[in-house]
Amino acid sequence: MRALRIPAPGTLHLAEVPEPVAGPGEEIYRPHLVGLCGTDLDLIDGLVDPAFVRYPLTLGHEWVGRDSAGRTVVTEGLIPCGSCVRCEEGRENLCATYAELGFTRDGAAAATLAVPRHLAHEIAAGVDPTAAVIAEPASVVYRALERAIPTPGARILIIGDGTIGLLAAALARVWEPERVDLRGLRTEQATLAEHAGVDRFLTRRAAKGYDLVVEASGSPAGVAAALAATRRGGTLALLGYLGRDVRFPLDVDALINADLTVLGSFASTSASWRSVVELINAGTLDAGWLVTHRFALTDYVAAVDALRHPHGARGKIVLELPQN
Ligand SMILES: [Zn+2]
Ligand SMILES: [Zn+2]
Q: Domain Alcohol dehydrogenase-like N-terminal spans what residues (predicted)?
């Protein structure tokens, strides 16, 4: 079968590889749409922490496809052991054994892939697969919001106008905030921000005094803006990776004086997947609007280029695999 492979950092190509064989408890799935994100670029460029990647690998940790019975499904990307202390706490993202599709195991940018069956979530009939392909990033965002526990009536600011920021704005509504503002860099993202339901889309310095700020831009400037925008006693949730060798100087005294809660949120949990799939199946999270670019798998060079060099409104970029 054909698969989009990274044999080693710096190279990406379509290769002919053997079909995967299902291990115990696994099923073979047939991907339909595969989302690409900034982390895929980092994987291609070799910028992901080596503890979280194993080359060579097949790209693709965001996807929707079919199971052997023809049902539309998404599967969790993390493959937890299920028996360590963290797994038993329901924090599969902190499992003692890290394994993830598209990072340490072959991902979904291929005709088929093998995943433990218990990680699959069925997408309701009638839901457009385009609205389900964002399940993975949405679960990552949902888990961060769950950790931050916005109180009803909270004033929330999202920093970053990429897909994580836009999904954070859309999902924050679940917690019934007073307002959700989004601070981005590119005015071209205004229409997408509107789809995400933001109250105000800002491209310059945001007002201060937010109860919760979600940093999803993955830039030192974004982190600085996030710290400045969080009110005393507020919460700052960090979701955007700065990159392996980038450091940010912390003004510890200011953090203490501001009585600030700063949290990082890594990946997703089974619980966040269940919540997100429920929202997708109920139509509450209908984020098909987020998919702005579709490419055939064979056009992966153009897809990666669109990911690397955004122009115009740019949401989720997906690769489409032939269905038969
Ligand atoms: Zn991703
Ligand atoms: Zn575990």
A: 24-123
